[in-house]
Amino acid sequence: MKFDEKLDIYLRARFTLITLLTPEEERVLQTIQGLCERTQRACLAWDAADGYQWVTPSTVNPPTAKDPLTALDVIEKSDSKNSTIFILKDFHDAWNNPQIKRKLRSVCQKLKYTKKTIIITTPGGKIPEELKDDAVIVEFPYPTTVELDDVLKNMTQTPGIKINLTVLGREKMIQAALGLTTSQAQRVYAKAIVTDGVLDDRDIDLVIEEKKQIIRESEALEFFSVTQTPDDVGGLGVLKDWLRLRERAFTLEAHNYGLPAPKGMALIGIPGTGKSLTAKMIGGLWHIPLLRLDVGSLFGSLVGESEERARRALRLAETVAPCILWIDEMEKALAHGGLDAGTSTRVFGTILTWMQEKTSPVFVVATANDITSLPPELLRRGRFDEIFFLDLPTEEERKEIFAVHLSKRRRIPQDFDLSILAVESEGYVGSEIEQAIIDAMYVGFNDEQREFNTEDIRAALKRQVPLSVSQRENIEMLRNWLREGRAQSASFRENQEASNRFVRIQLDLKPR
Q1: Which whole-number Å values give the CA distances from 171 to 154, 165, 168, in the listed order?
Q2: What phi and psi values does residue 257 have, to the nearest 5 degrees?
Q3: Per-residue pLDDT tens for 239-290?
Q4: CA torsion angle 197 200 206 207 (round to 10)
Q5: 366 pairs with which residues across the strands?
């Protein structure tokens, strides 16, 4: 249902107080004006600077009201027979005044059997407890592709502005601007034009870069460039096959076939096994935007601020959809121990409810190292399409990991004995293998910059104490969690007992 259709239902149902959450005051006024003109309603807007002004055409002078109390008196005394909307701008600044708060509540109660409605526009969603019974909170959506296309059309009509977009380029340009307000989109387009004098297909990347900065200012979301591919991730064959099977999940073909958009996946497992890298890789594989939700940035000092930030971030992710929403190490931010007056519990509840009820194509990738800190309701079936466990890499996977990191450092993997390295790195995770290569490179660099070799990497491996030894209790607990059937292994299975045996041997050799 479109926003104006939903608003019309509220007005016909005689809702007396509607709070519109949006930073886009100008677009809200245009939308309400269009609705009022189609439905023959009168509309007045008030602010502390200019008082009342007519939004819809009128031959009558607007009433005079320079302060909030007088503005409410005007509403209360206005003709109850006429269908009228009163838009109060910046009125949330007056909510802390007990007298105004009481007056607003009284006026709302008197309007129940009239055709008058008060609409308050505000960028934040916190309203006084006393008004919650009288008010309905409505979120004003971000601009659609049609509205963003109108912004482009309006710029085309501006003298001196050159736009030379192909049909596909125009579509990608508008897609790149999803999640921005109309004002932000107009500024981004204008910057692209000023940069080289014309808006063409080459400016799509510039718009995306500007969009990253704007999304970053939302405090909780970070826009990631999708450069990683499955070739940049060693091992995890089962997980990669699962992702490739859903590579076209967000296409029109899949929709027409009747396939629902995938909900998401949880990546649980040992630190350093590639959970974060996998999240980045999905964006590159599926060619859709990747947003990282920094849950720690959601928490604010004011009451209700954290929940509002969470709702705003999730709403923005839905606007950018189809996209991937990456929640990294969520156990650190969502572990609700009751030490923050229940704020983390409420934030967690907001995210959990959204995950359950969302209909937009937002694919959630949640990563976690410590499953004991996660509430059980998060990982129940239905929240995610699949829960993957990232274990210690198998021998074949370790070969792939060595090859990936050697290639990343402009070395030819065939110049190294990957079989020996894979055997001697048993029990090591991907990040430890990468560090062994880096340590070997330092050795070669400081030895008259000679080329490092297999022996240097072997020596670096021996100097390390892998996580499979230093955190053996935690790793064994995680592996027991997998054995209980609570998740699917992300790797093609080797002889799991061989890996377990290695850990036991390492423990026996460790000095007591």
Answers
A1: 16, 9, 5
A2: -70, -20
A3: 989 999 998 888 778 888 888 888 899 998 888 888 888 888 888 888 788 8
A4: 110
A5: 266, 327
